[in-house]
Design goal:
globular; seven-stranded mixed β-sheet; six-stranded parallel β-sheet
């Protein structure tokens, strides 16, 4: 049983929450303004749809990498995530996708639930790689369907301006896969057309995409004008706080991702991001040329960052959990309600994470 200020689907209550066999069984209490007492905050566990690594391990590695990754992120409040790939040669990428199927079926004790795979590349624009390796290719439907058959791919990032990609967007969206636009030099019109074909979100909004200009609004302009969903990295390095605020006003269900790398939860030094060598220093991760290469952000720090901008806790919580669940069409995660999974985080009044529960399991080791 947990007691505190609980953010339920109907708003804040001060009361108690009970769970059994991994599910929430009871909620009781009275409506409260959490600013009127000193009780801890009890929030839905965080859902991160863009995770490349953590704890020194990378999604593109074989073996026990996913165990280290999920345990690292669980210690920072992430109760479920999408294992996110890097652009790589076809055979390597297919092996990785196939191997992640087992991780999605069987949760590592002490770790986050792997909801599936986010295929970030190889179907991106080679002129907007960001930190992705130079192995981008144009999508061919037969190959895309092979990926979908190999593993639980929930999200695909694609550059819509590449010839043939509009048809691919339509095909995979019709199969229930969420299509995101990113690593793109596409125009505003390309993005709008892609959304009409079934694309629903934008990958790390503002980063690795054509920017907003008042006479050439680009991918960013299309997102701000039309998107219901988009992901954003609020480490305060990738995106200026003013741009974060603008996106939150424009995109109703803007949701937080970390774009975290193997350097997350680790000391400064040299690490890998897929086939790339990266350096963690000064709070970020970069390629040798200085390009930002993912992040070391954790979701508990993302909460603190957004709250530091003066945003209400309930709004911040939704952007760390519920919006991502709704985007994937998951009704029993990302919210506190009877029957939902007992994926929970507890924060004290100074916004320090004090407890995490993944499907009712207490995660007791904190970084």
């Amino acid at each position: 049983m947990l007691t505190g200020n609980i953010l339920t689907t109907d708003g804040w209550i001060h009361g108690t929450l009970e769970f059994e066999n991994g599910r929430i069984t009871a909620l009781s209490g009275h409506v409260v303004d959490p600013s009127t007492n000193d009780a801890p905050y009890i929030l839905p566990g965080f859902i991160d749809l863009h995770v490349h690594g953590g704890g020194g391990a990378d999604v593109m590695e074989a073996g026990n990498a996913i165990e280290a990754i999920t345990r690292t992120h669980a210690r920072h409040g992430t109760t479920s995530l999408l294992a996110t790939t890097m652009t790589a040669p076809r055979d390597e990428l297919m092996n990785v996708v196939a191997g992640l199927g087992g991780a999605a079926r069987n949760r590592t004790p002490g770790g986050s639930r792997v909801l599936g795979v986010h295929l970030e590349g190889p179907y991106i624009n080679p002129g907007k790689l960001g930190a992705q390796p130079d192995a981008a290719v144009s999508a061919v439907l037969d190959e895309v369907l092979q990926y979908l058959a190999l593993g639980p791919i929930r999200v695909v990032t694609i550059a819509p301006e590449i010839a043939g990609h509009m048809d691919i967007i339509s095909e995979i969206a019709a199969r229930g896969v969420r299509v995101q636009l990113g690593h793109s030099l596409g125009t505003y019109d390309d993005a709008v057309a892609a959304m009409k074909h079934g694309a629903r979100s934008f990958t790390h909004l503002f980063n690795a995409m054509s920017p907003l200009h008042h006479r050439n609004p680009g991918m960013v302009g299309a997102a701000l004008a039309h998107a219901e969903y988009a992901e954003i990295i609020p480490d305060l390095l990738h995106v200026h706080p003013g741009a974060i605020r603008a996106a939150m006003r424009a995109i109703p269900r803007l949701y937080v991702v970390t774009d975290s790398t193997s350097a997350t939860g680790m000391p400064d030094g040299e690490y890998r991001l897929g086939s790339q060598h990266v350096t963690k220093c000064l709070g970020g991760v970069r390629l040798a040329d200085g390009t930002l290469a993912g992040s070391t952000l954790t979701m508990d720090q993302a909460l603190r960052n957004l709250c530091s901008l003066g945003l209400p806790m309930a709004d911040v919580s939704n952007r760390l959990s519920r919006h991502a669940a709704d985007y994937l069409g998951i009704e029993d995660r990302g919210r506190i309600a009877r029957g939902a999974w007992a994926d929970l985080v507890v924060f004290d009044r100074e916004l320090a994470l004090t407890a995490t529960y993944v499907e009712g399991e207490s995660i007791v080791e904190y970084a």
